[in-house]
Specification:
Elements (H helix, E strand, L loop, with lengths): L6 H9 L4 E4 L5 H14 L4 E6 L8 H17 L18 H10 L3 E5 L5 H9 L3 E6 L2 H9 L4 E5 L5 E2 L14 H11 L4 E4 L5 H9 L4 E3 L14 H8 L6 E4 L7 E4 L2 H8 L10 H11 L22 H20 L11
Parallel strand pairs: 1-2, 2-3, 3-4, 4-5, 5-7, 7-8
Antiparallel strand pairs: 6-10, 9-10
This protein binds flavin mononucleotide (FMN).
Flavin mononucleotide binds next to loops.
Length: 344
């Protein structure tokens, strides 16, 4: 979870039998190295480094200036002056510098979001002994990931908090729910499937296994752990979370993401127009989401399952999740439920 994961959270998850991850998608490379070394020093177990693989954003001046105009009222509302000009450095999500760092660090696992890098990068990481995982949001994406050599595939359902891992920019209404996606992906590929999206407790884990998954990826549930880098505002929102809190919108970053509903996001969705490419759109929205309060304008990322969150240290949460899943399996395997009583 970019900007929400920490080495402490990853270490606690690894030490409890999970695959702890560092979200490196928006992290400067020196920090990635330092945090990866911290995780390596804190656990002997496998850990994962996660990267975004999006193309370099194209700077379309007409689209950028139309978006500036659309956002001008929000700038006025919060007294922010004029929206900035595009200042993105135009770099792709995964580049030669990131590959070189990974080949040097050789983490046990690397996962990708928004697709995978080119065949040469994949081959060199595999030759270095790194296991590779990537997210699919459709069956076709999962089949493509298997063809490209992924060792496991995350089937990310619609319920998931954060950016959709779709391999191309998608509209906010394009999404397959976890319940429908996981069994279809499990049928379509031979490599292990990891279910993501809406798994909040042991019942969700058991359900994912019943659907054909070999593991689960949980994000939202860990945002309430003290080890997560979740800010105090989002922690408070998570305490009050309900199933209907969130919206999928591409209006904040330029790519569809599930976050807390806000009037700004809803207004942008009801007046949809082409947006600058991810992550360029952030250049325009960052001042707004920083200045606005939660219901007005914000980018509090969490998923539809947030109401089940528990404020527990990650080790304790991991223990509870395993206990709960085992209990569900035991209950379900006790055999047929008692027959229904005959009608009176
Ligand atoms: C705060 C937050 C940040 C996220 N950042 C990333 C990320 O950087 N890379 C990634 O592959 N997935 C990211 N995700 C998505 C998760 O990997 C995962 O697919 C999702 O959390 C699963 O659904 P859940 O939130 O219902 O557990 C993020 C999710 C959240 C909640």
């Amino acid at each position: 979870m970019s900007l929400s994961s920490t080495p402490e959270l990853a270490i606690a998850v690894c030490q409890s039998g999970g695959l702890g991850s560092l979200g490196c998608g928006e992290t400067e490379l020196g920090k990635v190295r330092a945090e990866a070394l911290q995780v390596r020093a804190g656990t002997n177990r496998p850990f994962n480094l996660n990267f975004f693989v999006h193309p370099a954003p194209r700077a379309d001046p007409a689209v950028f200036s139309a978006s500036r105009e659309r956002l001008a009222p929000w700038y006025d509302k919060f007294g922010l002056g004029n929206p900035a000009d595009a200042k993105t450095d135009g770099r792709a999500g995964f580049d030669a510098a990131k590959l070189a760092l990974l080949l040097d660090l050789r983490p046990p696992v690397v996962s990708f979001h928004f697709g995978v890098p080119d065949d040469q990068a994949i081959a060199s990481l595999k030759a270095a002994g790194v296991k590779l995982i990537s997210s699919a949001s459709t069956v076709a994406e999962a089949v493509e990931l298997e063809r490209r050599g992924m060792d496991a595939i995350i089937a990310q359902g619609w319920e998931a908090g954060g950016h959709r891992g779709s391999h191309r920019p998608t509209a906010p209404w394009e999404g397959v729910g976890t319940m429908a996606l996981v069994p279809q992906v499990a049928n379509a590929v031979k490599v292990p499937v990891i279910a993501a999206g809406g798994v909040g407790d042991g019942r969700g884990i058991a359900a994912a296994f019943a659907l054909g998954a070999s593991g689960v990826q949980m994000g939202t549930a860990f945002l309430s752990c003290p080890e997560a880098a979740t800010d105090t505002v989002r922690r408070k929102l998570l305490r009050m979370a309900r199933d209907t809190d969130t919206i999928v919108t591409d209006s904040i970053s330029g790519r569809s993401a599930r976050c807390r509903r806000s009037r700004h996001a809803e207004a942008m969705e009801t007046t949809r127009k082409p947006l600058p490419d991810f992550p360029m759109m952030y250049d325009l929205t960052y001042p707004i989401i920083s200045a606005g309060f939660d219901e007005e304008a914000s980018f509090h990322i969490y998923g539809q399952i947030a109401a089940l969150n528990r404020e527990l240290p990650a080790t304790e949460l991991m223990g509870r999740l395993v206990e709960e899943a085992v209990a569900v399996f035991a209950t379900l395997s006790r055999g047929r439920p008692d027959p229904m009583p005959p009608p009176a």
